[in-house]
Design a protein that fits this description.
- By secondary structure, the protein is of the alpha/beta class.
- It has 29 helices and 32 strands.
- An eight-stranded mixed β-sheet has the order 1-15-12-11-18-19-9-10, with helices on both faces. Strands 8-7-4-5-6-23-20 form a seven-stranded mixed β-sheet, sandwiched between helices.
- Strand 13 (about 260) and strand 14 form a beta hairpin.
- Helix 10 packs across helix 12 (about 365-390), helix 16 packs antiparallel against helix 17 and helix 17 runs antiparallel to helix 18.
- The protein is elongated.
Length: about 900
């Protein structure tokens, strides 16, 4: 957090973006929540200094997917913390950043592709992470300890001022909620900070708008226990009804607004100017809300907490207290007006005729009856307001919801019933953080307005339940603390409360972390943690792949990860876990520290799998690509950055040794025969995949070269999908050659060296530019963009075509001496380049790719996807604006049957010319 100072540089209007304030909004100040029927414009506080953009430059690579924009002349730190201090919970949103570096390969590629990232947006967005944390308000001191331990009020321990030892004065942090007034003196006393209060309604709407715009699977429906995620087009966000259910209920109509800046007029609902603001109006509300439920429940059941009351409701039977339609009609429905026998005719109505005292009713039944009464009424009142204003979209949030399944079901039923199915209730995964997010966004130049869904990547690291209650621990400052904490709770033969895999531990509506989960040594996540909230990685250098035919309808996953499909992958990944841990530990030298981290990784990933088995939608809409990337992220969390490094190096060396003979064999063929041999070679070499158990078993039957040759011999057409003849016709079309081919590579070793490099060489021979696309981060034995230049350089020692193309593409900077120049009489080569794809998974989601890949796609007219992960598990049905070739060997029997009614080791050659 920075001190206010007067050394800021002026920022031109065109760079000010959302930070320039509407005159009317500035005049409003920070009063109380608007009254009913009062229209309010969101505003930005001017208390923070402006950013000094002079000398700003991108600094960093995508290896950690957190590129940072450096501001060398910025004298203060960027705001890092905002709070929403409510009566029951304190919500924190804070930002952390990480420095990075760029290598020569990246700089060379950026120059060639003309990527001028310094001018990507009107003002800087720092790459980093947005964290979400909750505390019980009654445990305020623990919250203050957490802030202090991470120095969040001073910009974080990674901030320039903290590293320099200079401690700023007059620190101001943003806060909303009643506690911002009530506890202001305590924050000043304990942390030396002043709380700048932000209007609650402003913050709620700003937070909601940001989530709907920026998080792809933020909103969901919940009916009959089933969650279904809803993708809301950010260009069609407004209008909607926001129902905030706290102690009472506020019903807010949110619409777009027009911003007037001198002679400029921007409509915020246009495709380029939906910036997270909005015009809103509090149109209604009710005093019957969460406070009513808690208050009456406490009087009638003697429960000590809201969570305890909710947990009681799960074991309740409201029919012992509520008068149902069936009670009136002798157990029958009232079908004439559409009421079933189980419909509540009168909440608590049955107690009128019962001759019982309060103590004779079960507290569980009372709690459930109260919950249904209040939830039904909130749903009905909300729908009536939506009907009044002609709105079809109703979003519910507030501490009353808390991801509690029955509460959401009850509200959804009411909206569905009264609207006759025409309107659906929707809920937000981050609903408890709307106010804190809005307070964070009230800082000048927070940068979030510039972000779109493709700039945000959600991760789910393991976190300690630092929220108070029966089980809680210290904030986890480093990896050793995290491992120690996990070991503490994973004990054989004792009942444990397992850690929940989430970046923002939260007390949920079903008892939070106080509910015991499992016995024995199997680490399971807490079944009561309804919808987990992860850490948002802000990656401004990610882009939507420009060659997608329709980004709005694009779905990367070929098969939905339903319960049956997840069960299969749960078993498969669990069975593979011991081997993966063994290789990860070996990659770190097999030290005691590595073994300890390996055990922690195994427990953590098992917890993720168990959590998803219990609740497949716990982390949002999750496909196989997300599941596989979750495994890789979990490895990296415990500092295993490349578990297969030594295996990849060994296989690369073995494959490079036989590459010259293969190239000589290919060069002896005519053009048609060579093209077939090249495609066969790609398919045969794709067998080398450490992610496939069947392929790993093959490794015990011979050397890499023996297995490759065996695979080549078995290449018999027709393949399961065989578009080779169409491909050959297009490739041999001399009057319309391709200009640039993007070739997405898969595995290290024979796959890339004996399969993809010879194919790339053939394109280069025909004067076609080649861009090899590889992972930004390791995943199993997949080759990475950092590894490819060295492999290409080694291959180029025996091939002039590759050498000249690599030199032209900046992969080989210095001329190599003592190599055989078999292309000395050929004209200057087209370039061979390498770009990273922005991924760390065996799959690829083209909604989020690196800026390098997006720039390289600008002039590409052919895309080649190779491997099961990128061409079958994902993108098999994807359509592109250029010709696409999908090549893969199916190394999984279940997948072969599901997709093609085929068999393991079937081959796919799917060519899709652009229409």
């Amino acid at each position: 957090m920075a001190a206010n100072n007067s050394g800021e540089a002026p920022i031109p209007l065109e760079e000010a973006g959302g930070g320039v304030k509407h005159e009317e909004a500035e005049a409003e100040g920070k009063g109380k929540a608007p009254a009913t029927s009062t229209t309010t414009m969101l505003h930005r506080s001017g208390s923070r200094p402006q950013l000094d953009l002079s000398g700003a430059a991108i600094h960093g690579a995508l290896e950690d997917r957190n590129p940072t924009i450096l501001l060398p002349n910025q004298s203060d730190d960027i705001s890092h913390l905002a709070l929403d201090i409510g009566g029951s919970l304190i919500k924190l949103v804070y930002f952390s950043r990480h420095a990075d570096t760029e290598d020569k390969r990246k700089l060379s590629t950026k120059r060639r592709l003309e990527i001028f990232t310094g001018a990507r947006r009107s003002y800087p967005v720092l790459g980093g992470r947005l964290h979400f944390v909750k505390f019980e308000t009654g445990k305020l001191n623990e919250c203050l300890d957490f802030i202090s331990s991470k120095q969040l009020h001073r910009g974080g321990v990674d901030s320039p001022s903290w590293r320099s030892g200079v401690q700023p004065d007059n620190i101001v942090i943003k806060a909303t909620g009643g506690g911002a007034y009530k506890y202001a003196d305590l924050f000043k006393e304990r942390l030396g900070v002043s709380l700048e209060k932000e209007d609650e309604m402003d913050c709620l709407v700003a937070g909601s708008n940001f989530l709907l715009k920026a998080i792809r699977h933020e909103a969901f429906t919940h009916m009959d226990g089933q969650k279904e995620y809803v993708q809301i087009d950010q260009n069609d966000m407004f209008p909607y009804l926001l129902v905030n259910v706290g102690s009472g209920v506020s019903i807010i109509k949110v619409t777009f607004r027009l911003i007037f800046y001198s002679h400029w007029i921007f409509a915020n609902y246009s495709s380029s100017k939906v910036d997270g603001h909005g015009k809103f109006q509090r149109v209604s509300g009710t005093n019957v809300g969460g406070g009513t439920y808690w208050g009456l429940g406490r009087l009638m059941t003697e429960c000590k907490s809201f969570d305890e009351l909710l947990e009681l409701s799960q074991r309740g039977d409201n029919s012992t207290i509520d008068m149902l339609v069936g009670d009136i009609y002798g157990g029958l429905d009232y079908s004439k007006i559409g009421l079933s026998a189980s419909t509540i005719a009168s909440s608590f109505g049955k107690t009128i005729s019962d001759n019982k005292e309060l103590s004779e009713y079960r507290p569980e039944d009372i709690s459930l009856s109260l919950l249904r009464m209040i939830s039904y009424n909130i749903g009905q009142i909300s729908y009536l307001n939506a009907l009044r204003y002609g709105l079809k979209r109703i979003l519910f949030g507030g501490f009353f919801i808390r991801g509690h399944a029955y509460t959401m079901d009850t509200i959804s039923f009411a909206v569905h019933f009264w609207s006759k199915g025409e309107t659906k209730a929707m809920f937000l995964r981050h609903e408890g953080f709307l106010g804190a997010l809005g307070a964070f966004m009230s800082y000048e130049k927070h940068g979030l307005d510039d972000l779109s869904a493709h700039h945000l990547v959600e991760r789910f690291p393991m976190g300690a339940p630092y929220v108070g209650g029966k089980i809680h621990g210290p904030p986890l400052g480093d990896l050793n603390e995290k491992i120690s904490w996990m070991e503490k709770f994973v004990q054989k033969g004792t009942q444990i409360t397992a850690p929940v895999p989430m970046g923002a531990p939260a007390t949920t509506g079903m008892g939070g972390f106080e509910r015991p989960t499992s016995k024995g040594d199997i680490l399971r996540s807490d079944a009561s943690a309804a919808l987990n909230v992860g850490v948002l990685h802000l990656v401004p250098s990610l882009d939507v792949f420009p060659l997608l035919e329709d980004p709005k309808t694009y779905e990367p996953n070929t098969i939905d990860l339903d319960q049956d499909e997840f069960k299969y992958w749960f078993t498969l990944l669990s069975d593979h876990l011991p081997d993966l841990v063994e290789k990860a530990v070996a990659s770190e030298g097999g030290t005691d520290d590595a073994k300890r981290r390996g055990d922690a990784f195994a427990h953590a990933f098992s917890a993720h799998l168990a959590r998803l088995m219990e609740e497949p939608a716990a982390y949002g809409k999750f496909g196989l690509a997300n599941l596989l990337e979750l495994r890789e992220e979990c490895l990296r969390e415990f500092q295993f950055f490349d578990a297969y490094a030594s295996i990849k190096q060994r296989e690369n060396e073995a494959s490079l040794a036989v590459l010259p003979d293969l190239l000589m064999e290919l060069d002896s063929m005519d053009e048609e025969a060579r093209l077939l041999a090249l495609i066969e070679g790609v398919l045969a070499a794709n067998i080398f995949d450490w992610g496939s158990k069947a392929c790993v078993d093959l490794y015990h039957q011979g050397t890499i070269i023996e297995i490759y040759r065996m695979s080549r011999k078995k290449m018999q057409r027709p393949w399961r999908i065989d578009d080779f003849d169409i491909l050959k016709k297009r490739m041999l079309k001399k009057d319309k050659p391709y200009k640039r081919a993007l070739i997405s590579v898969d595995n290290s070793g024979a796959d890339v060296v004996l399969g993809m490099l010879p194919l790339a060489r053939e394109f280069l021979r025909h004067g076609i530019e080649v861009v090899l696309v590889a992972n930004s981060l390791p995943a199993l034995n997949d080759v990475t963009a950092n590894e490819l230049p060295e492999i290409v350089a080694e291959a180029a020692k025996h091939c002039g075509i590759l050498r000249k193309a690599a030199e032209a593409g900046g992969l080989i900077v210095d001329a190599m001496a003592g190599i055989q120049d078999d292309a000395k009489d050929e004209p200057a080569s087209v370039p061979l380049m390498v770009v990273e794809n922005g991924c760390g998974s065996p799959c690829i989601d083209f909604r989020q790719v690196s800026s390098e890949l997006a720039a390289a796609a600008k002039d590409a007219d052919l895309l080649i996807l190779e491997g099961m992960g990128r061409a079958l598990h994902t993108n098999l049905n994807a359509r592109f604006k250029c010709d696409a070739l999908k090549l893969a060997m199916v190394k999984n029997q279940r997948l072969a049957e599901k997709l093609f009614n085929g068999n393991i080791y079937d081959c796919i050659c799917k060519f899709e010319p652009v229409s």
